[in-house]
Amino acid sequence: MNERENPTKKYEGRSLFLLIIVAVFAVIIVARLINMQIVNYDTYLQRALRKTSSTEVLVSQRGEIYDRNGVPLVTNRICYNVILNRAQLPSERQNEVLLSLLELIDEEALTYTDNFPFGNAPYEYYKSDDADIQASFDSVKKRLIKTVEAKEDISAGELMEKLCKRYSLTELSEENKRLLAPLLYDMEYKGFSKKTPYTFASDVDMEIITVIKEDKVTYAGADIVTSSAREYTTDYCSHILGRVGYIPESEMESYKKKGYSMNDLIGIGGVEYAMEESLRGIDGSRLIESDSTGNVNIISEELPQNGDDVYLTIDLKLQATAEESLERNIKSIAARGRVSGRGADADAGAVVAIDVKNGDILALASYPTFSLKNYSQDFAKNNTDKTKPFLNRAIAGLYAPGSTFKMTTAIAALESGAMKPSSTYHCDGIYDRFSPQKFYCWQYTDLGRGHGTVNVSGALQGSCNEYFYEAGYLTGIDTLIEWEKKFGFGQKTGIEIGGEAAGTIAGPDVAEKQGQRWYAGNTVQASIGQSYNLMTPIQLASYVSTVVNGGERWQPHLIRSAKDSASGKMTKKPTSELIENVDFSDSTYKAVINGMKAVVNEGGTAASVFKNYPVAVGGKSGTAQVAKGTATGVFVCFAPADDPEIAIAVVVEHGGSGNNVAPIVRDIMDVYFGLDTAQTESNILLK
User: Fold this and answer.
1) Strand 65-66 to strand 309-312: parallel, antiparallel, or no bridges (unpaired)?
2) 454 with 594: CB under 8 angstroms?
3) Is the pLDDT confidence value at 256 over 70?
4) CA-based nearest residue to 468, from 573, 597, 622
5) How remote is the C-alpha of 247 from its chain's centroid?
6) pLDDT single digits (tens) 189-239
7) Torsion-angle region of residue 192: left (phi > 0), alpha (psi -120 to 50) or beta?
8) Alpha helix locations (H) across 190-248?
9) Cα 313-571-259 angle, rounded to 5 deg
10) Taking the alpha carbons of 480, 482, 487, 489 in that order, is the dihedral positive or negative?
11) Which of 10, 172, 551, 603 places its Cα 20 to 30 Å from the Cα of 586?
């Protein structure tokens, strides 16, 4: 019979075994402690105090922009940006965090633009009648297809599906998929990584900062950094100044070669873009070393270099006057037109004022305009507005010059010998050289009579079409074109800001491109500023400046100088470039100037606007017929008449006549010469 095993002995054996295991671990721990605290104390102490280093970017300030008198137009202010740190952003919660941030932060503060070429589900590619907009859609579509490695004929729905798989969005709602896909694409494109943080939003308010700082769980990986933002100190000059923004994908490679990072801000449009090299600052850096005890030391520091301040040729007071007067008079013409039936469709225009002695642009206004302060908020509305507020009509608006072109015809005819200053021509109102085809003088059309016998000065004073029909015919189109080129027509002026149009010079080559033949009748139409002639307001201002200063064609320019923001040392000095000396005789000059003086005096087409004006002015009005609607009103002038300083060109679409738009010029002259300032400045508040 077997004896049962003693339970007490069994448990004693197990206890002994556990005791041995505990003793072994205790010995190991004690040995480790002796090793760390006695044998290798110094080694482990150094490890404990081992220092880590990191580099902090010291953001530079962008240079500021001023008018010619030192009045600030664009400055900087401290702002706060929301950035994402890859190391702190939990991968499993990334989309959740991003959705929380999108819900928290206003859309206009976000640094990325949703430029996907399709909208919400069901996904269909956008189509636009505007070639530029469609090209933008196609460009983004091509990049997205390349990103997901798909075929070119992929549908919008299939493309979105592949993007959702790429960014782990398949389990989300369609709305959230569409919200996150453009953002995640932008983050990927800009190289978001542990070494490269992503700027999620810029210039956020204090309420958002507080929420993010207090809720580190919901907004894990989001942090707040100090930066600077552009402050527009004026509501004027929007078409001139430009703005700042993140580098467009299409230009990323070229900027990277210049040392820019994907998160850098650059000038977009206007002076901000034209003077990017001067305005841009150079960021500094700080090497920071810290240890496990929390001690922090600055090892080295390279201070940032702020950008240069840029000074424009613009006089803000004149600019404000030009913009306000342009808007006020366009609305007045439209209001009167609703009663008279002529000019009710007036809705846009431009003004350029230039220093005739050096090409300084004193004012450059376009209407309708937009607010740089509210650019993002108003973008959708302005971008679809049929009046095109973003179009800088002063440099890109193309208009038939009408009778303001007649000085060109006069100079070409006099200098070629086709006419003489003393030559006269009898205008009965009907030009029948090409009978049975007939051309009419405006006075015959409006009043049933001609101008009678006139010389060149008288023809300019009364804007006699018939005189200039004959002058253009005798001169010939080739000679006329030659003089147009001398005055800068058909070519860009070269002003620093982009978007300028070259315009068109009427002639056989242009007619041929239109599938038409050129006849002598086309020449007489071209000689009064019609036919295919198209000019920009800045070309008209430059042309008048060249005529009245005796033939010096100066390069129109907006940039006056640049200065180091710290030292005040000039880094770009004021310069004026003489493009060409247009040579014409004193007798020609005198005949043309006398005619332009007579325009604003008793009997001239603009005499009523400048009656009893204390400064002698010369000018020329123009009425340019258009395919549809009321004619375009054009007026050019200069003053003082005997020693010209300033030349101005104004164009109002559907303005009816040059006489209708001449009051805009007078408003600018008032401010320039310090006349009627109490009345003028009551309407012009420098905002």
Assistant:
1) parallel
2) no
3) yes
4) 622
5) 14
6) 888 887 788 899 988 999 999 999 999 899 999 989 888 889 999 999 999
7) beta
8) 206-214, 238-241
9) 110
10) positive
11) 603
Instruction: Give the type of residue at 178.
Output: R
Q: Which CATH class is domain 52-85+222-312?
A: alpha beta
The per-residue pLDDT for 676 is 64
**Amino acid letter at 61?**
Q
Phi then psi for 226, rounded to 5 degrees? -85, 135
Here the tokens at position 634 are: 């054009």
Taking the C-alpha atoms of residue 365 and residue 79, their distance in angstroms, rounded to an integer, is 31
pTM (two decimals) = 0.83
Beta bridge partners of 570: 563
Res 623 pLDDT > 90: yes
Average pLDDT, the chain: 89
Q: Which CATH superfamily is domain 316-372+395-559+579-681 in?
A: DD-peptidase/beta-lactamase superfamily (3.40.710.10)
Write out the two tokens for 523. 């020449």
**DSSP states of 509-530:** HHHHHTT----HHHHHHHTTT-
Residue 336's SS3 state is helix
Amino acid type, 412? A
The distance of Cα 593 from the centroid of its chain, to the nearest Å, equals 37
Contact in structure between 480 and 408 (CB atoms under 8 Å): yes
Q: Looking at residue 372, what DSSP letter applies?
A: S
Answer whether residue 129 shows pLDDT above 90.
no
Nearest to 138 by CA among 121, 120, 156: 156
CATH 3.40.710.10 intervals, the chain: 316-372+395-559+579-681
Helices (H) and strands (E) in the chain, counts: 25, 23
Q: Does residue 61 contact residue 228 with C-beta atoms inside 8 Å?
A: yes
* Segments of the chain assigned to CATH 3.90.1310.10: 52-85+222-312
Contact 392, 454 (CB under 8 A): no
